[in-house]
Sequence to fold (305 residues):
Amino acid sequence: MRAQFVLSEIGVGLRRNLTMTFAVVVSVALSLALFGGSLLMSDQVNTMKGYWYDKVNVSIFLCNKSDAESDPNCAKGAVTADQKKQIQADLSKMTVVQKVSYESSDQAYKHYKEQFGDSPLASSLTPDQMQESYRIKLRDPEKYQVIATAFDGRDGVQSVQDQKGILDNLFGLLNGMNWAARAVMAMMLVVALMLIVNTVRVSAFSRRRETGIMRLVGASGFYIQAPFIMEAAVAGLIGGGVACGFLLVARYFIIDHGLALSEKLNLINFIGWDAVLTKLPLILATSLLMPALAAFFALRKYLKV
Fold:
């Protein structure tokens, strides 16, 4: 097969259906940009999980005098020194516990003033109203229930709280947004495939006389189909290149510069450039193969060769 002929036919086909080719490029670019974005979003969520789950603590809050008057869990009164010693001794025996830190009511009051000193409530609080607590670092953050079962409801314990539950709500929201992006990506992908099929059909119809002559002179089916398939592949590849550009620009302006989230949100461990660059070959390969396969199956149905 003469490569020069095929390349010339590709150029003719792309120029002849310029409007539809542009629509294919745009739809492929948007769908694959969303595809790449959803993959990066998954990586970001996993990175944040690994970072934050390693830092979460389980907190055992102890009863104080105020709780004894208002909280049913503290009906037997404020925690005693013996109860605190027993709680600490039991914690030291548990293999799931990595580290235990004690926070007195004075320390809790000081931390509260540092974080919420401007709050109207801060001026009315006193140290004796703050709860003593044990902050527990687990070897496995998933083992929270072991601590909850052992200490929830015990005399002197007001509540057992797991910070991981708060993070789970956040990550659930992020995952929901990610799946919504994937749903939009799937719809855009369907639109792109429909445009590719229609573009190939229009191109084949406009060149039906040429393909008829090629049949008469004995050209093989693949020789006749190749220009149409490669037209779709080239248009898709251009769209894939645009999608890669979108991802690179988004990473640069959203995280590093422009919005500069990496500087403004120091508590978030953002994905690096390596995560973005590893997705680009997949996007380019998809942008090349997806239109080519769509064109191939469209030609089998609409171009009887």
About this structure: Residues 163-206 form the longest helix (44 residues). The radius of gyration is 31 Å.
